[in-house]
Design goal:
disordered N terminus; hydrolase; transmembrane helix; globular; 39% helix
């Protein structure tokens, strides 16, 4: 086509303009063919099919069920959720006894499934514990633990009632203050909503959520307190139970006082195992030659900190209770927390330096009770706990229970003993002494318990599996240290993932070997 070409190279009888048009057409056809070939090798992403449920929660107005659609949009907070995550608000009744009355906004977050429609099962709703823990913040923070499930599930979490952006409880000096200033402040600033806080009410929100997410059945993964919520849901809606995983279960058969005793014993046992390991494997072990010496050294350290708290960095100091909670936080991490705990205790004992101990304390698990007064999760924790429990002992009985908790653990008993007073002055009645969890008629529910759990003792998982009912609760035991075993233990991951993908539970009595084996 170039003017430099010989004239004889041009075809006879074809005008130059026509030749140009012809070449352009051929180029276009060739491009089209090449794109068709490319598409055959790299098909366009399959359009997402949204699921639709046909079983709305009974007794709710159409405006909240068939007339409500979740409007997902880019999350504005937390900052970690601004890429890839979607947020929405669900309208739910404030009072389920008056479903046509006032509504509340429930904050939701979602990360869409990445697998093809043919493999997608639905939504997996996650609760990370507490009570008082935000799921909207929690999903981005824990996505590494659950991200491999995105092939089959949308991952969804939410802020339960009283938490985060869902009808938050305020117990500060003013209505906007997130500090906890006591029960009277809660009644003053949140009295209108406190009667509608609690696990059974949040469980009813879950069923509305299930329907609006488009699922005929609820698929759910709850950790620690999240097991109480999942079991409450199963009790209320056994016919809607899909695949429910309850890991590191609370004990549904004990009241608040017995729970404090059991937890003090469990964390003490975990510390004793650390002390044995430390004496045998760590040079210059700060806790000495075994559990008895460890208890004596910790008692001396606690006395010292009670008289003069140690600097912990950032203007913080550590007293005796802070010591107990921080050590517990390290123990929740299982054997991974043992070497840094030994180093941190050495720094504190030898150099009065609490920075390393503070750095390793993430205020999760048992340390929820020591949440900072400026942390609104403490107000939510107390509000939900006292809404669930109707136990209201007098001071004489509380003092006896406090001494019993203290006697249960030489290292942690004093700090844990204050938990028995949690609901003493709470201005509203609680629901029950122990929760109802029997879910007769539900599909099998997988309960995962770690033998060395320092926060939710293994016996609680055993009791939960039995209390759910014959043929419903299936217990998977993990011989692991730490609070929670998924995804740390490969055997647990294999069994849990198979259940979530197929609905098949492990055989009764299955035990996964781990660091305690």
């Amino acid at each position: 086509m170039s003017d430099a070409q010989p004239r004889g190279s041009r075809g006879p009888g074809v005008p130059t303009g026509a030749r140009i048009v012809l070449v352009l057409v051929l180029i276009a056809l060739g491009t089209t063919v090449s794109w068709l070939r490319y598409d055959a090798r790299h098909p366009a992403p399959e359009p997402r099919t949204e699921f639709t449920a046909t079983n709305p929660p009974a007794g709710l107005p159409a405006a909240l069920t068939t007339g409500q659609h979740l409007r997902w949009s880019r999350c504005t907070s937390p900052p970690t959720a601004r890429e890839g995550y979607e947020c929405a608000v669900m309208k739910a009744p404030l009072d389920y006894r008056k479903p046509d009355g006032r509504t509340i906004d429930v904050a939701l977050i979602r990360l869409k499934a990445t697998g093809p429609n043919s493999r997608r099962i639905g939504s997996l709703v996650l609760n990370f514990g507490g009570p008082g823990v935000s799921g909207v913040n929690g999903l981005p923070a824990r996505i590494r633990q659950f991200g491999h499930l995105l092939d089959r599930y949308d991952l969804v979490s939410f802020d339960p009632r009283g938490v985060g952006a869902t009808m938050p409880v305020r117990c500060g000096k003013t209505a906007d203050d997130t500090a906890f200033e006591g029960d009277d402040a809660c009644a003053k600033h949140s009295g209108a909503i406190l009667p509608y806080i609690g696990t059974s009410r949040t469980a009813r929100d879950l069923d509305l959520m299930r329907y609006l997410l488009g699922d005929q059945r609820m698929h759910y993964f709850g950790v620690s307190y999240g097991t109480a919520l999942g079991a409450a849901y199963a009790h209320l809606y056994p016919a809607h139970v899909g695949r429910l995983v309850l890991e590191a279960s609370v004990d549904p058969t004990v009241d608040l006082d017995e729970e404090q005793v059991a937890q003090a014993k469990a964390v003490q046992a975990a510390f004793d195992r650390f002390a044995v390991h430390c004496a045998a494997r760590i040079r210059d072990c700060p806790t000495g030659d075994g559990p008895e010496e460890a208890a004596r050294r910790m008692a001396r350290l606690a006395d010292r900190l009670e008289k003069k708290p140690a600097p912990a960095g950032g203007g913080r100091t550590y007293d005796a209770d802070d010591l107990a909670y921080a050590v517990s936080d390290h123990l929740t991490r299982g054997t991974d927390g043992w070497p840094p705990l030994a180093k941190a205790l050495t720094a504190l004992i030898d150099h009065n330096d609490g920075r390393a101990l503070a750095k390793g304390s993430d205020r999760t698990g048992s340390a929820d009770r020591s949440a900072s007064p400026q942390d609104s999760s403490r107000a939510a924790l107390i509000a939900i706990t006292c809404a669930d429990s109707s136990l209201r002992n007098g001071l004489e009985r509380l003092d006896r229970e406090s001494k019993r908790v203290e006697a249960a653990s030489p290292v942690f008993g004093a700090a844990w003993s204050s938990g028995v007073y949690l609901c003493y002055d709470w201005p509203f009645d609680g629901e029950r002494v122990t929760p109802q969890v029997n879910a007769e008629g539900a599909d099998p529910i997988l309960v995962v318990g770690g033998v060395g759990d320092p926060v939710t003792p293994y016996g609680g998982s055993q009791h939960m599996a039995r209390a759910l009912g014959d043929g419903v609760g299936v217990l998977l035991t993990a011989e692991e240290e730490g609070h929670g075993t998924y995804p740390q233990n490969r055997c647990v991951v294999k069994a849990v993932d198979r259940y979530l993908h197929t609905g098949r539970t492990p055989a009764p009595g299955t035990v996964c070997r781990g660091d305690m084996s």
